Amino acid sequence: MAADSILTVLLDLLGRATPARRAVNAFKASMLAGGILLVAGLAILAAVGFGCAALWTVEDTIHGPVRASLLVSSALLVVALILVAIAWLVHRRGTKPVASTITPEQIDAIQKLVGELVGEHKTGALVAAVLAGAAAEQATRRR
Predict the structure, then answer these.
(1) Dihedral class, residue 64 (left if φ above 0, else alpha if ψ from -120 to 50, else beta)
(2) pTM above the 0.70 mark?
(3) Which residues does 102 contact at the CB level (< 8 Å), separation at least 6?
(4) Structural domain count of the chain
(5) pLDDT per residue rounded down to tens, the chain (143 residues)
(6) Do 25 and 64 share a domain, yes or no?
(7) Are 87 and 28 contained in the same domain?
(8) For residue 106, what are the domain limits?
């Protein structure tokens, strides 16, 4: 996404566009944020890996290789258990569906804009459709 289109998305999100255009731009902004979060997650994963390597190196010189491996694996196990507990609490809390307040005219406008967007980016649209279908099937299996 070019800088001018990012600026357009931001201006539209501030309320200078039709509701349908704002919905499309909100989707674009969330995809951009998702990409940024993916890169941040990879950086965090690398940081954890390097931190474990540093801990292993320090513990290896102090306690020897066997105790170092036990200490590092124990630390990772504690972190994993904490993350599992947090995920369980978030899942248990759940989310409630939001009622739709979109008018038929807005739906038509969204369909027109999405049609134009799909026409420009066919490969990405096909990948998004496959992922949406897989997510919808997972959601119906859980019920």
Answers:
(1) left
(2) no
(3) 19, 110
(4) 2
(5) 555 566 666 655 565 666 666 677 778 878 888 888 888 888 888 888 888 888 888 888 888 887 877 888 888 888 888 888 888 787 777 655 555 677 778 778 878 887 887 778 778 777 777 788 888 777 666 65
(6) yes
(7) yes
(8) 101-143
